[in-house]
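Structure ticket #2291
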Amino acid sequence: MSDHLSSHDKNDQDVDLGALRDRIDTLDQQILDLISERAACAQQVAHVKLAEDPEAVFYRPEREAQVLKRIMALNQGPLPGEEMARLFREIMSACLALEKPVRAAYLGPEGTFTQQAALKHFGDSAVCKPLPAIDEVFREVEAGAANYGVVPVENSTEGVVNHTLDSFMDTSLRICGEVVLRIHHHLLVGSNTRRDKVSRIYSHSQSLAQCRKWLDAHYPHAERVAVSSNAEAARRVKSEWHTAAIAGDMAARLYGLERLEEKIEDMPDNSTRFLIIGNHDVPPSGEDKTSLVAAMRNQPGALHDLLEPFHRHHVDMTRLESRPSRHGLWNYVFFIDFKGHQEEPRVQAALEEVRQRAADVRVLGSYPMGVI
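Resolution: structure written out below.
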């Protein structure tokens, strides 16, 4: 009797599984048809735009931010909102490539977190080019060889990337967006290295700093060697003996390395913020951030005078950094981020007062706020 029931249950299981597979096949066809319809609609948008303006801009950061936020708000699961947004990002990236592929330069080499940020923001259908230095990314965009650039600006553990801030001193480029990545560092080795034989560990200086306590506890006697990037660290250990690299998932895949240990960063919420730079202003998306740089006269109370209008007009500042000015000994410029778009009345009122008090103010851009 029990054998008969088991066989009967198995048949029911087979029927149910077959029906579910048929249902998936039907859904796949519907998804395929809808994506194709969306792509055709994107092509029609391109024709309309080009008829109105031969130099039309196809990529609209504020529009994509609105779409992705709406998708995450409407998502009912079981896939998490971030994963659903990633899938829609790729659909939008592929559709945009039918109109005109986005060309993006990023701080390389391949396999870095900056490349990961570029792909998160623009999708895999964008044409992404690695460059060896931050100022070269700025030059590539200024020259028109790339539509956008992707550069790191701050890490939640190690602070700001001064080279990026300094690059804004001598450019007319605008900030068009931001990407926030949760940074996970792994200890990677090649096939030539055993766990108990690691005597040297390569990584970028910031990554070594972000994993300092873990390294002290687990590899206190291993030599720590700072290199130009985590991807360069991964490239080196691919062929070396008794060495390891601290790097992320992209570098591990690119060089075919084994993960000895995962997520070895000292701070579990370790994140890095990246900026998207371009040549145009971005209209409001509904949830924006603005960045500016201000030069103050060297006088008592100058910083208070700079910040007071933001407080009085209820503008929420999220970051304040000072950098030495290039136009006078012991003079400083201030980089400020705050919530809101420069077209909002309260922001305009605050900025007008700041301009009256500062020696020079330049808005670097208003752009959709990034989310992890």
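Closing remark: The chain has four domains: 2-95, 103-182, 186-261, 281-368.
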